[in-house]
From TrEMBL, chain A:
This is ABC transporter ATP-binding protein. It holds the Pfam family ABC_tran. InterPro entries: AAA+_ATPase (IPR003593), ABC_transporter-like_ATP-bd (IPR003439), ABC_transporter-like_CS (IPR017871), P-loop_NTPase (IPR027417). Residues 1-22 are annotated as: Disordered.
UniProtKB/TrEMBL annotation, chain B:
This is ABC transporter permease. The keyword Aminoacyl-tRNA synthetase does not apply. Pfam families: ABC2_membrane_4. Keywords: Membrane, Transmembrane, Transmembrane helix. The chain crosses the membrane at residues 16-38, 58-78, 114-138, 158-183, 195-216, 236-261.
Length: 328, 270
């Protein structure tokens, strides 16, 4: 069974993304990578739409980095197809990569040079524009200085001066890597564990930056092993488990209602007595769980029994529960 | 990309430190010779040294003769071994490739950078040798120079012979660079690539002296390394120099081809 077929009945109409393939920024079909005997990525069908904030979630060793490397043409797939920004990779990688910003498994920089010198070299190494003659010359030498300053400003690294990267903290290097990814105003950002080494405040700043870029039209493909990070940032989630995509859905669908209702009452013990087990159970934090008792009847019964109903709401799964359910 | 690589090369302190060290040794030798006036007897010690005492103008050749057996190959192997593996180790290789820089382009730029370094190193040693030779050993007012064969050379003769020698040694070093560059595309450790390259040279040097290895001797990379001494004989016996160029060319073509074939298709997982 492929991920596309995963529990189709439960999938709601997509609210973000999921449109026609025409506006997809990343599509893979049957993408597989084997290193000798290890199957790092197994029959992956990804789909990231323009404008998505896509969270690629999976524990360590599940194949996230390998997938990202294949999307960028660094690693060659054993089988399967990849399209990035509508063009086949790796065949047309040189046409699409100018419009992609990437952070793969930590930043990389020449330690003896400053942040600015690193960015200058990196920018000068690439072509001024993509393979399409009509593509914007986002890498032009004329704008290099101002683009570098803008990228450093975006990631909050303006005041590092001439200090060599050798003297940077891990968080500062991560910011520099992000600045390098932003240097050319990419249409698609592919970020592999971008918040490694950042403090909570830094993580929040970067999240705000990415949200802002996304509002202005940049699609973000973010791989992470941190549920909370994906839950806070992404609109769409792909869950990877041992190289296989076990779910790909909108975040809201993955956190969908469980069909049960949680009720907050003033006296839980009295409420359980009134409704009787097993119709009503209590959660650890003192909420009443109604499994299949209709809410109006239950509340009426509670009020009749002298229990005040403070609040009643459908229970939602957390992303964690969904993911654990899918990967165990 | 080539411009970027050259900027990286020239902007790195290590480039200049290593070249400075390469130049230092011949200067030290010249100082000792000048102070003591004791030259090695012909046939002993580094090539040509016995001839330079009365004749500082031969010292550039002697200087290259001093650094050629060890230091120059080490410097070139380290530089070439660093080329791709160094980018892998600093984590910059993947970012260059996704910038995107084509893999062939990157390899060519690395090769040009290594060639530039080699040329810079050889020329610096020759130039320092010349200055040290002239200023410390003097050219004793002679307009002509004596060859190893005892005949005399005009300064013009000496100049072209020295020029050919620089090119010949440079080309031998390109052979070294090819070995290390190829290894550099195989491993993500610059140290391993440089040491691998040196291991090849040391093995070759050992085998050249081994009679049992006579069958392959003429194809070993270091077999003709010292053939440039022939350039200072009269008339020049071109046989070994030509053979040396051909052998090196063979290694360079095969190894650079292998480096390209490997690097352009391999997975970059650094
Ligand atoms: N170069 C490699 N050679 C062999 N196996 C590898 C290589 N890179 C990754 N793997 C294996 O592939 C699997 C996925 O790794 P990776 O993509 O790095 O996962 P993640 O980024 O999700 O932590 C792991 O089992 C890992 O051991
Ligand atoms: Mg990873």
């Amino acid at each position: 069974m492929t991920a596309r077929e995963h529990d189709p009945a439960r999938r709601p109409a997509p609210t973000t993304g999921g449109g026609a393939d025409g506006d997809a920024v990343v599509v893979t079909r049957g993408l597989t990578k084997r290193y000798g005997r290890v199957t790092a990525v197994d029959d992956l069908d990804l789909r990231v739409a323009a404008g998505d904030r896509y969270g690629f979630l999976g524990p360590n060793g599940s194949g996230k980095t390998t997938t990202v490397r294949m999307l960028l043409g660094l690693v060659h797939a054993t089988s399967g197809e990849i399209e990035v920004l509508g063009r086949r990779v790796p065949r047309h990688a040189k046409d699409v990569l100018p419009e992609v910003g990437a952070l793969v498994e930590g930043p990389g920089a020449y330690p003896h040079l400053s942040a600015r010198a690193n960015l200058r070299l990196l920018d000068a190494a690439g072509p001024a524009r993509g393979g399409d003659p009509l593509a914007p010359d986002t890498g032009s030498r004329r704008t290099r200085r101002s683009r570098i300053e803008a990228a450093l400003e975006q990631v909050g690294l303006t005041d590092v001066g001439r200090r060599p990267v050798r003297a940077y903290s891990l968080g500062m290097r991560q910011r520099l890597g992000l600045a390098a990814a932003l240097l050319r105003g990419p249409r698609l950002l592919v970020l592999d564990e971008p918040t490694n080494g950042l403090d909570p405040r830094g993580i929040a700043e970067i999240r705000d930056l990415l949200l802002d870029l996304n509002r202005r039209g940049t699609a973000v493909f973010l791989s992470s092993h941190l549920l909370a990070e994906v839950e806070l940032f992404c609109t769409r989630v792909g869950v990877l488990h041992r190289g296989r995509l076990v779910a790909q859905d909108d975040l809201d669908a993955l956190r969908g209602p469980t069909g049960r209702t949680l009720v907050r009452v003033d006296d839980v013990d009295a409420a359980t007595r009134v409704l009787g087990l097993p119709a009503a159970r209590t959660t650890d934090d003192g909420l009443l769980v109604l499994d299949d008792l209709p809410v109006p009847e239950a509340t009426a019964a509670l009020v009749r029994g002298g229990v005040a109903v403070l609040e009643a709401a459908p229970e939602r799964r957390t992303l964690e529960q969904s993911v654990l359910g899918l990967t165990s | 990309m080539i411009g970027v690589e050259l900027r990286k090369l020239l902007g790195r302190p290590r480039t200049w430190v290593s070249i400075g060290l390469l130049c230092l040794l011949p200067v030290v030798v010249a100082v000792f010779l000048a102070v003591t006036g004791i030259a090695p007897r012909p046939g002993q010690g580094p090539t040509l040294l016995s001839a330079v005492l009365g004749n500082g103008a031969l010292f550039p050749a002697a200087a290259l003769g001093i650094v050629l057996p060890f230091f120059l190959p080490i410097a070139v192997a380290v530089q070439a071994g660093e080329s791709v593996a160094g980018e892998a180790q600093s984590g910059t290789l993947r970012y260059l490739l996704v910038r995107p820089v084509g893999r062939t382009r990157l390899l060519v730029a690395k090769l040009v950078s290594v060639l530039a370094y080699t040329l810079l190193a050889v020329l610096s040693v020759a130039a320092t040798g010349y200055l040290a030779g002239i200023s410390l050993l003097g050219n004793s007012g002679q307009v002509t120079t004596t060859t190893l064969s005892g005949t005399t050379l005009t300064p013009a003769d000496l100049a072209w012979r020295t020029g050919v020698m620089v090119l010949y040694i440079g080309w031998s070093m390109v052979g070294v660079a090819s070995v290390a560059l190829f290894l550099s595309t195989l491993t993500d450790s610059p140290l391993a690539a440089a040491l691998g390259g040196l291991a090849v040279l040391v093995s070759s040097t050992v085998l050249v002296t081994l009679d049992a290895a006579g069958a392959v001797r003429d194809y070993l990379p270091t077999r003709y390394w010292l053939a440039w001494v022939d350039l200072f004989r009269d008339p020049v016996p071109w046989g070994d120099v030509t053979a040396g160029v051909l052998v090196q060319t063979g290694y360079v073509v095969v190894l650079l081809g292998a480096a390209w074939a490997n690097f352009s298709t391999r997975d970059v997982t650094s």
